[in-house]
Amino acid sequence: MNAARLRQSLAIGILLAVFGGSLWHVFIRPRQETGPDTVEIQLGHWLLQTGMREAFDHAIAGYQKLHPHVRIRQIPVPVRSYAAWTRTQLIGETAPDITGMLTLNEELISRYYLPLTPHLDRPNPYNAGTELENVPWRDTFVDGLTAIRNLTPTSGEVCGVTLQVNTLRLFYNRELLREITGSDEPPADFAALQEVGRQVAAYNARTGRGLVTIAGCGPYARQLFNVLLPSQTQRLTLEASPNRNLRVFPIELAALILDGRLDYDSPELRRSLDLMRDVSALMTPGFTQIQRDEAIYAYLQQNALMLFAGSWDYAVLAQDGSFTTGMVPLPLPSPDDARYGQHVLGPVSEAAGYPEAMLGIIRSSRHPDVALDFLHYLTSRAATADFARISHRISAIVGTPPPPDSEQLRPRLDGELNGFTVDFGWFAADLSSNFFQRNIHTAIGPQGDVAAFAATLNAELPGHLRQDIAWHLTRIRRDVRRLDAQVLFSLTLPDDHPARANWTRHAEVQHMRQLENLYYRRYTAP
Questions:
Q1: Which architecture characterizes domain 168-345 according to CATH?
Q2: Whole-structure pTM value
Q3: CATH class of 36-167+353-409
Q4: Domain 36-167+353-409 and domain 168-345 have a common topology
Q5: Residue 28 pLDDT exceeds 50
Q6: Using CA atoms, how far apart are residues 366 and 431, in angstroms rounded to an integer?
Q7: What pLDDT does residue 181 have?
Q8: Are the C-beta atoms of 114 and 368 separated by less than 8 Å?
Q9: What does each C-alpha distance from 196 to 82, 164, 207, 217, 347 come to in angstroms?
Q10: What is the rounded distance in angstroms from the CA atom of residue 43 to the CA atom of residue 96?
Q11: Of 33, 41, 158, 465, whose Cβ has the fewest other Cβ atoms within 10 Å?
């Protein structure tokens, strides 16, 4: 009886303690931190990787030291739920003052984010005393904020800033590579990478271990394919680019296939599929069903020699690995490769990079001036140097030094133009891409048959392409209608209003959308 009462009292005590702690967190703690003159803003983002929250905390502390009346609270949200969370917060007008712009379309950005364009031609005040002191804020970013502007091509407004530039790298265990191959020098091209794979197999046979060459997982394998396979379409891009702009977009590739000018028996596309099979043989068996964390764990446990991942993962590899991690851009086939060199121009430039940590100010913010000032501070030379060091990432600000031992994370600025992928990733409604991914297992593995996979694609993919094009054109026509309103609104502004001239840009974009709709609608019917 006494024991039962003791357990009951203990349970009640725990509940009371939790309830009391919650009350302290909600009521007492804010009163200790804030006063009647205190300004509070929030920063919402999805960047939960090792080092990122700590880097934000450091930047926030530095800003609050300069502005004691300001309190900034970061709200990190897991990336898997971030898209739904962001939309809910935006629609409910409860979004943080500064909210990350992950997976947002132009309509949402234009409706809920403040344009920063008027501020971009003025210097960042926090760069005073540096070589960026008199440089327009826009030009302090390595890409001039082109990536942000591309999110809103219709309006042309810039509604956010970029903190970092991501790259994709092949990470490797230096000590294990030396033990297996006799050298810690990474492979220079794809043929050398295949040779490392053969040496790993020999090492396993000799020692009884079960190492894999590359720890693979579904999400990162797709990114690996997107880097490796376009090497086989580099020369074709020069010849097949419909607009002669050295690019072949998914809808343009779809038209080339539906016109019968290309199929998966074309040499360049077939070699892409062959290359996909060969690199898959170096990865963990069943990698398409493996998640990112499992692949990283396999690498850290030294069950894999290498890991293909993003620069955002380097911090956890450096912090948790019991060995030295090296890094190199993914080795591509060289032009003199006997099997894969015929269609290759050479290593690809990474000058465009992959923008990361895109942040904007919400229109409903109660303190947009403070939010803007914090973005100025966050993108200043001094703040970005500390941010890069703590997060182990490459800054998007010109001249910011890379983190220690991370020089290889910098984007490679020299190189050739890239080719195009053959899987229609992220095109329209993703019907074609999903069909490709559902059948990819037939081309890889010990029983993989690339010829059969190509035949399946040739026979069944065109129907999915037509549906994707129809979906894409539905979005195009919606853009045309929205641009009608934007053109009319611009023309109603006074003649001296700076935004009145926007009607010409809106009309030009509308004209291009109408031409695109007229040209591609013939592909929607069999």
A1: 3-Layer(aba) Sandwich (3.40)
A2: 0.84
A3: alpha beta
A4: yes
A5: no
A6: 42
A7: 96
A8: yes
A9: 39, 32, 16, 20, 20
A10: 6
A11: 33
